[in-house]
Design goal:
Elements: E1 3-7, H1 13-23, E2 29-33, H2 34-40, H3 42-50, E3 54-61, H4 65-78, E4 82-86, H5 91-102, E5 110-114, H6 122-127, H7 135-148, E6 153-155, H8 161-167, E7 173-176, H9 195-200, E8 205-208, H10 210-213, H11 218-232
Parallel strand pairs: 1-2, 1-8, 2-3, 3-4, 4-5, 5-6, 6-7, 7-8
The structure holds cytidine-5'-monophosphate.
């Protein structure tokens, strides 16, 4: 059964706690990203965990293997459930992250790799020396590279998840942002899919921010998305 993760895109710990409390039992998983973590640090992770929720700590590590290993260990000590790294950090860095996570046994955080940021196009890739590959080719290549070197899963767009979930080994996690229920405002997202489509295509976790956080009734919005996901479960 796919899980619903709400992107806690707020600026303070107080707002984060207020949102999690007001959404209540309908959502059990929250994403804490760079903005909130840089403002509030590990305390905000602890606060969300103390409310009984799972945490996806989305800091997209990309550094030398030793540093990433130690950062993943710090995340494991905080009890986070999912963490992100950049697959372009290389084989040794991906393995170091996976090994550090594995130290936590049954409660090990799952390591998700970012392949190509969705903000980058072909000319951006060329600027950093990636030539002769389209962004889609690069996504596919980096996805199998990351999973082959120990990543538990991938962050991918709803446009990519179908093909990746068919080509990568069973059990790989696929986390997709860019999800919008039919009729919802897309905001700055350009390529979106409905929750049902994302689940049908193989997403194991959907990340949804504004359609829930900015809804007049966030509890009802989360319930509707959950129902759509359940209806599509394969
Ligand atoms: O509000 P919205 O549903 O668009 O939020 C989506 C969340 O997923 C945000 O936290 C955003 O930063 C994140 N994300 C994304 N697209 C990516 C990677 C992450 O929207 N390619």
């Amino acid at each position: 059964m796919a899980e619903l993760i709400v992107a806690l895109d707020v600026q303070t710990r107080a707002e984060a706690v207020e949102k999690v409390k007001s959404i209540g039992d309908g959502v059990g998983f929250y994403k804490i990203g760079l903005e909130l973590f840089t403002a509030e640090g590990p305390d905000v992770v602890k606060a969300v965990k103390d409310l009984g929720k799972k945490v996806f700590l989305d800091l997209k590590f990309h550094d030398i293997p030793r540093t990433v290993e130690r950062a993943v260990r710090s995340g494991g000590k905080l009890g986070v459930d999912l963490m992100t790294i950049h697959s372009v950090g290389g084989k040794a860095m991906i393995r170091a992250a996976a090994d550090a996570a594995a130290e936590f046994g049954a409660s090990a955080p799952k390591i998700l790799a970012v392949t190509v940021l969705t903000s980058l196009d072909q000319s951006d890739l060329a600027d950093v020396g990636i030539v002769g590959r389209t962004p889609a080719d690069q996504v596919k290549a980096m996805a199998s590279f990351a999973v082959g070197n120990g990543a538990d899963g991938l962050v991918c767009s709803p446009m990519e998840v179908g093909e990746l979930s068919r080509s990568l080994k069973a059990g790989t996690l696929f986390i997709t942002p860019g999800v919008r229920p039919a009729g919802a405002a897309v905001g700055d997202q350009k390529r979106v899919a409905t929750p049902a489509d994302a689940v049908r295509d193989g997403a194991t976790h959907l990340v949804v921010g504004r359609p829930i956080l900015a809804a007049q009734d966030p509890v009802a919005a989360a319930r509707a998305i959950r129902a759509e996901m359940d209806g599509a479960a394969r």
